[in-house]
Every structure is written in C-alpha cells, then in structure tokens.
C-alpha cells in the first residue's frame, strides 16, 4: 500500500495542475506573461544591437593601437640592426694591433711530496641501546 502512495499523489497533483492551467484566470496570466517576456526580449535585442557597435569600435581602436605599437617596435629594431652593422666596421677601423693572448704557467708543486687524499666526513655512529 505504501508503494502506491507516491503514484496516487502524483496523479492527483497532475490533475489539479491541468485543471488550474485550463481555467480562464490562468490563460490570462499566461498571455500577460508572454507579453511581458516579448517586451523584455525586444529590449534585450535592442541592447545587444547597441552594444555590438560599441564592441566593434573598441575592437577597431584596440587593433589600431596594436598596429601603431608594432610599427614603432619595427622601426626601433631596424635602427638597432643598422647601428649594429655599422658598429663592427667602425670598431675594426679604430682597433689597435691585437696582442697575443697571455699564457699562464702551471703553478710550481713539490714533486717529492705528493698530495694526500682528503678524508671524507663521516656521520657519528649512533649508540646502540
């Protein structure tokens, strides 16, 4: 019997909902809701249309700023590249005669006394208790 209780309650609540939906008052409420939703939808569409043009303008101005920055960076890199190409030519003309690299002599060591190997540090042993 307890298993049929939810089934019976569902049938009763469904029939009550259908009866309420078919009433004249409910139909008027549905038409008012439809009208207000239509009005809200049209306002939303108008808002999106207006915001679309402002987003478009913002995108165009952002791309223009990016293009200008890229052009400035390109000019700067070209100027740096030209000066780097001119710098080695000027450096070669002004450079004095090159010296020989200095060769270091090995340090003198006492051949009679070979070096002792270093002792490794060991960890102290634990006392076994």
What are the salient characteristics of this protein?
elongated, 129 residues, mainly alpha
- The stretches of 5 or more residues where confidence is low (pLDDT under 50) are none
Strand content: under 5%
Q: Which bin fits the share of residues in helices?
A: 55-70%
Averaged pLDDT = 79
Main beta-sheet strand count, sense and barrel state = none
- Sum up the overall morphology in one term: elongated
How many DSSP E strands? 0
Q: Structural class per helix/strand content?
A: mainly alpha
Distance between the termini: 75 Å
How would you characterize the overall build of this protein?
- The protein has 129 residues and is mainly alpha-helical.
- The chain has a domain at 11-91.
- The chain contains two helices and no strands.
- The chain has helices at 5-21, 24-94.
State the gist of this model.
This protein has about 130 residues and is mainly α. It contains two helices and no strands.
Topology record:
Blueprint: H1 5-21, H2 24-94
């Amino acid at each position: 019997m307890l298993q049929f209780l939810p089934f019976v309650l569902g049938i009763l609540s469904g029939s009550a909902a259908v009866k309420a939906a078919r009433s004249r008052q409910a139909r008027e409420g549905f038409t008012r809701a439809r009208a207000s939703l239509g009005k809200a939808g049209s306002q939303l569409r108008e808002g999106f249309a207006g915001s679309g043009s402002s987003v478009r303008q913002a995108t165009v101005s952002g791309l223009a700023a990016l293009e200008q920055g890229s052009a400035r960076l390109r000019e700067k890199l070209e100027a740096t590249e030209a000066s780097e190409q001119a710098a080695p030519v000027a450096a070669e003309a002004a450079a004095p005669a090159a010296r020989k690299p200095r060769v270091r002599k090995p340090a003198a060591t006492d051949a009679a006394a070979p070096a002792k190997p270093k002792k490794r540090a060991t960890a102290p042993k634990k006392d076994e208790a």
